[in-house]
Design the sequence.
């Protein structure tokens, strides 16, 4: 109490602690009810035998669900796919995004048009983007990729079945296409907040472009790279749309969200689906504790 | 703050690149090539949507085929208006709810901060890390019990919880730029709450509200997993409607492209119109 009063401005903040808290409470209570309660239920159900197809078998299951999730081949595969998908998409789109951001940081005629073109993929609704890649680009009979091959090399051109041959890569490419603009936008904003007078001084002192990039630009960009990588990872880990649309989880592309969706929605195994959900959450918490620290430091810098 | 820095930076760059014209042309060329490559799939989608199904399915592709509205006609004949209306309702109402809850919360976290405000901020952020899929089952069972399945209000509530943390973070970051000395001065001058809000707070926060609204709208409009599991024929949203095109049967490429384009149009329009807001929103206010 006393610290609050001391920190608050003498003229403004005489109101009690509850008056300060009041505006916060609706949002806080809403979030606790809508996001924390369901998760608690998930936690409880994960220790239960509960399959909607066998309603009479409901009961306490101990760690059975966790055991079956962690030993199930499909579940393990789903964990691996999730990691590959997330790391692949985030890394590739970060690097591509950085290259594009550096290119767009220069002043040239039509730069804002190029930037606008560049962000278009991110503004296509994810399901629509996945449909576009699946049907209009990858399709072996009438997709653009095979169409271009035949258009350039004639009738003897190889006609690949892109999704069947490389299911996971097909999904990664479609997602990289959508997420590169996201990375680019944040990194470009970072580049444009560089103090250019220092860079100019270094240039006058004879520093090469590479030296400036390596020793000045990159350190300055670091928090932006971390932020965009982290935010991208949060969204890509949870990706459902692309996996659902492009392969419907087939061909070994089911990631954890899809696996849980299937266990719950198709197999109606509520106990196992919940256990898988808990596993995802634990994994996310481990990653997040490391990641959050870096993000928080960035936000604190920004707000001085 | 960053914008004032960015402006002299641009002129510096001009000077720098005036010195090295040849590599400059190459780099500009590279920028254009990459930008065009990235937009190409969308252009192809637009072009295909205006072809007849026969021409759309041609291999090699017929770029100069006569234009047709066949794809759009068959899309609009398949009843997309209720899902589009549902998406609009869910996105707009949840965005309004988010702002309604986030504005006071952000105020309590910045201008007159509660104790341990950073813990609260951390809590809001941590809910974004909680995979939505982990809460799906309880929400489904609850909705089943209270008869909220296939009800647009269920989605509105879920989308509000999905976007509220983003909005709180963004708005706090904007509100913390409100000069507290000016608030105090206004208080001393006897300015009323309304005037203080209008003249000191609003100019700083209005862009933040716009950015938050934009990003909440986009994320709600795009959402698929909840909508797919929790809605049926009545509350179906546009992305769920699009999943009807997942399996390929017969000639329907023009129709798919038309459908994808129409459903993406609101997001494309909003995003293009407010590109700088997009950056602020996506970075939750960390980047201005």
Sequence:
């Amino acid at each position: 109490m006393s610290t609050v009063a001391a920190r608050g401005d003498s003229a403004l903040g005489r109101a009690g602690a509850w008056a300060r808290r009041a505006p916060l409470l609706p949002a806080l209570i809403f979030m606790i009810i809508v996001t924390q309660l369901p998760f608690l239920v998930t936690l409880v159900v994960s220790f239960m035998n509960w399959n909607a197809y066998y309603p009479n078998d409901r009961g306490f299951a101990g760690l059975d669900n966790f055991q079956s999730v962690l030993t199930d081949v499909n579940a393990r595969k789903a964990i691996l796919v999730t990691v590959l998908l997330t790391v692949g998409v985030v890394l590739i789109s970060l690097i591509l995004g950085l290259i594009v951001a550096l290119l767009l940081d220069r002043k040239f005629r039509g730069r804002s048009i190029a930037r606008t073109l560049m962000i278009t993929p991110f503004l296509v609704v994810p399901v629509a983007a996945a449909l576009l890649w699946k049907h209009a680009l990858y399709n072996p009979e009438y997709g653009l990729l095979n169409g271009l091959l035949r258009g350039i090399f004639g009738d003897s051109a190889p006609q690949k079945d892109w999704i069947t041959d490389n299911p996971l890569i097909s999904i990664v490419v479609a997602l990289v296409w959508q997420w590169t603009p996201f990375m680019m936008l944040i990194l470009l904003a970072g580049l444009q907040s560089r103090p250019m007078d220092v860079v100019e001084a270094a240039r006058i002192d004879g520093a090469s472009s590479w030296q400036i990039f390596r020793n000045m630009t990159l350190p300055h960009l670091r928090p932006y790279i971390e932020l965009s990588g982290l935010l991208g990872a949060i969204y890509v880990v949870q990706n459902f749309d692309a996996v659902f649309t492009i392969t419907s989880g087939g061909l070994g592309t089911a990631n954890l969200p899809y696996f849980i969706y299937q266990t719950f929605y198709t197999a109606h195994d509520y106990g196992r689906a919940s256990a898988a959900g808990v596993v995802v959450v634990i994994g996310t918490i481990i990653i997040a504790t490391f990641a959050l620290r870096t993000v928080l430091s960035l936000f604190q810098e920004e707000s001085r | 703050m960053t914008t004032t820095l960015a402006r002299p930076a641009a002129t510096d760059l001009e000077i720098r690149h005036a010195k090295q014209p040849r590599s400059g042309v190459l780099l500009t060329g590279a920028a254009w090539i990459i930008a065009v490559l990235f937009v190409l799939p969308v252009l192809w989608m637009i072009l295909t949507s205006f072809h007849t199904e026969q021409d759309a399915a041609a291999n090699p592709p017929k770029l100069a085929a006569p234009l047709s509205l066949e794809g759009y006609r068959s899309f609009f004949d398949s009843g997309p208006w209720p899902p589009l209306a549902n998406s609009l309702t869910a996105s707009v109402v949840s965005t309004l709810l988010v702002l309604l809850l986030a504005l006071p919360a952000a105020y309590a976290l910045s201008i007159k901060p509660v104790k341990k405000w950073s813990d609260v901020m951390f809590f809001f952020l941590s809910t974004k890390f909680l995979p939505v899929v982990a809460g799906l089952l309880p929400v489904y069972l609850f909705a089943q019990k209270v008869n909220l399945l296939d009800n647009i209000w269920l989605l509105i509530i879920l989308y509000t919880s999905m976007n509220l943390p983003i909005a709180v973070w963004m708005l706090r970051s904007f509100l913390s730029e409100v000069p507290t000395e000016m608030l105090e001065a206004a208080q001393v001058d006897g300015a009323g709450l309304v005037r203080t809000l209008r003249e000191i707070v609003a100019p700083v926060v209005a862009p933040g509200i716009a950015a938050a609204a934009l990003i909440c709208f986009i994320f709600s409009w795009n959402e698929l997993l909840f909508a797919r599991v929790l809605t049926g024929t009545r509350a179906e949203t546009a992305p769920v409607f699009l999943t009807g095109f997942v399996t390929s049967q017969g000639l329907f490429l023009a129709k798919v492209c038309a459908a994808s384009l129409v459903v993406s149009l609101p997001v494309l329009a909003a995003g293009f119109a407010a590109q700088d807001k997009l950056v602020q929103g996506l970075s939750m206010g960390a980047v201005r």
Summary: Confidence is low (pLDDT under 50) at residues 1-15 of chain B.
